[in-house]
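Re: beginner question about structure tokens

> Can someone show what the tokenized structure looks like for a real chain? I only ever see the sequence side.

Sure, here's an example I had lying around. Input first:
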Amino acid sequence: MACTNLLLCDGSVTSPSASFNNDTNLGFYRIGNDQMGLSIGTNGKGAEFGNFTITNTVPAPYGPNTVRYTQGLYIQPLGVDVESTGLYIKMNHNTSQMVYGIYGEIDAAQNHVGGSFSRVVHNGAGDAHYVAHFGANGLGYESASWADGTTGFLADVQKDGLPNSVLFNALWQQPTVPNYGLFVATDSPGHSLTISKLAGSNEGQVQIRITEPAYSYNRFEVFNSGQINQKAVRANSTVTMSSAPEHRLVASYWNGTAPVEQHAVIGHAMDTTSPTSHMYLKIGPYGSEQYIALLSPGKVDLQGGQLLGIGGLSMKAGGGNVDMQGGTVVNCNSVQTQSAMTVVANGFTVAQFSYDSVNSTGQVNLNVATTNVASTGSATLPSNPLGFMVMMLNGSFVKVPYYNV
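And the corresponding structure tokens:
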């Protein structure tokens, strides 16, 4: 039997020309030239097929004026208490095959300005893609690289003036902290996090920060320049002083049966609201660290320890000088040096103490105002002193007698 064409009337969305005897408003109808629609009854148009164009939601110059498409689905709500979708795919993994809901390929001719496999123009305030996890170890998104130079995920801002946009947000609102954190780089040999700055970027711009809720106050900041700020909780009318968070350097040693941590702590504490504060150094097991130094403006408190040139606490600033800013050293059991120690006042050497380890002799050099005339007072010294001290006085060696007290 010879084939013949079946010619139908155009029909409409409410009265499709190709329908059914028991359901006359379900079927196909002609929309226009090279365009066909599918009516799904009282709910209206469900799909359209053909050569269509639509005004692009993304304005120029970020997108073309129109977008051309050959198939369109129209989601019709099927009830007030259920979810509706334009496409439903049921996955069946009861076979040994890899089963995909949607499978597509991108040819090798695509470039950076070519079209993507899928695109969503988002004018709402909810999710553009949503994955509900109910199976253990499920992955919401996976990108596998098989070629060099690929990018697994790219989120870019297309225009300036969007200060509150977030390109990646890991939201966790449960009372327990996840064991692995909100970001995990698994089996990475290195470079798990790399930040490449924009050329000419402001050195004072923050690249990494930890904030209080609602971004109200930065507690930790890493700047473009490499500067790091660790900030205390903000003081207020009730809590008038707030010390900075401690910076801990944690070492470990084996005590014969188990590893033990040893902490070195650097801290900055407020003393008064005048304001005064001090910096401290502590060392020891966690919770039992002992102070080794308190550094305040004009004061270094060694907490009964020693200020050593080497081997203990070594302090060096400005070419080997420890500048106390006119202050004092207190609670210091001893001051030790490798060879000689010089005391300078107003830029002039007033004293020098040295020791010769070869012949076990010491030397004291003084540069002070002297006189050989006693203007006041009267005292008679014994005629025979116990001995004499030889020292350099104002550039000349002198003998100084000493007696029993």
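Each token stands for a local structural state, so reading them left to right follows the chain. The first strand starts at residue 18 and ends at 20.
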